[in-house]
Amino acid sequence: MTPFAGIPDLLLGPLVGRPDGAWARSAAGRWSPAQIVDHVAAAIELSARGFNERAGKPPMTRRPRGISAALAQRVVFATGIFGVRRRAPAVTQPGPSPERAATEARLRQAVQHYLEVERHLLPARARDLFLKHPVFGDLTLGEFETFHVRHAEHHARQLRERLA
After folding, report:
1. pTM, whole model, 2 decimals?
2. What gap in Å lies between CA 59 and CA 118, rounded to an integer?
3. For residues 121 and 14, what is the distance between their CA atoms, to the nearest angstrom?
């Protein structure tokens, strides 16, 4: 299993056997485990949908990006350290109390959809199809996969801290 395919286990594993109260509990101003899972699922869905919609488009070239975007990408992809806390894009903001079974299924379905899009587009579109990431600029399908793995690892650490 690839690290990307393991995202559901990474995020949901610490919640196995835990009561629904642990799923929904959060400290003031912090997301609950439910909201973390919902947020990660939304981000993966957004990428899968975006690449799928662009599948029929002609080859693209990466737009120029600043040094800070390129450096941030290298640091995050190499270390998994996200640095400065940012507000998640509105489209990936979780609901106030995501339902457990539906949110777990949503995460699993998002990962499967992304993998299907990847099977359809790679290797032919590995270097000429991009989506814009709000911090890193244009990323390929493979780069977005790496981002999603690092993003899930980041949130899995938060999730484990909240459950401790």
Report:
1. 0.95
2. 16
3. 33
